[in-house]
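Homework help board

Subject: predicted structure for assignment chain

Our instructor gave us this sequence and asked us to write out the predicted structure in C-alpha cell form, then describe one feature. I got the C-alpha cells but I'm not sure how to describe them. Can anyone check?
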Amino acid sequence: MRASRSRSARRLAMLLVPAVAAFGAAAEPAPQDDQESFETVTAPLTVEPGMFVENGGLVGVGTSNPQTALHVNASSSSVIRMQNAGGVRLEFRDDANNVQWDFRTTSGNTFTIARLTPTPANMMMVLSNGDLRIAGSLLTQNGTNVYPDYVFEPDYPLMPLAEVASFIETEKHLPGIRSAEEVRRQGAIDMSELQLQLLRKVEELTLYTIQQQKEIERLQARLDAADGEPAN
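My C-alpha cell output:
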C-alpha cells in the first residue's frame, strides 16, 4: 500500500514538470531508484478526483478545463494556502524583462511586497498593528470625486462667515465635512474624499482672505481720507 502511494506521487511529480517549466522555474526529473521502473503516462489524465492534467501540460485543480499553467477552482473561501514554519514567500518573475517581485511574511507578523530587480527594495509593508508603509507616492483614482476648482467659479455659493460661525456653534463641525459621530458610525474614512473636502475648505479660506483683504484696503482708504493723507 505504501509503495503504491509512492509510485502515484512520483508519477504526479513527473506530470507536473511541464506546468512548473511554464512558470520559468528549473524543473528536475523525478528521482528514480534501482528498485522500480515506471510506465509511460500520457495526458490528458485525471490524477486524482479533482486534479486534471491536459495535453499541453496545464494542471487543473477543481476543474477539468485548465486555462493556465496552474488553474485552481475551489468552492471554499480559501483557494490556495501556503504554510511554512519559517515564513512564507511567493515570487513573481519575468525573466524576459528582468522583473522580479516578492510577496512574503517576515518576523514580527509583517507582510512585505518587495522589488527584487533591478534594485532590491521593500515597496510596501503591512505591520502587525495595521500600519501601512510604502516607498514612493500614494496615487488614487476615483472617477466619482471631482477636483474642487469649482469653488473659484463666479456662481459658487460661498457661505457667509456669519453663517459658518452659526453652523459651527450648532453642529460642532465644519460645513461639508463629516462629523466625528458620522465617522464613528461608518467605521472608516474615505481618504480620497477627505483630501478633496479639505482642499475645498482651503480654497474657500482663500476666498474669505481675499474678501477680508479688500475690506481692509477699503477701511484703510477711509482712514487715510479722514486724516487728510492720500490713500496708497
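Reply (TA_rk): Your C-alpha cells look well-formed. For the description, you could write something like this. The radius of gyration is 33 Å. That's the kind of observation they're looking for.
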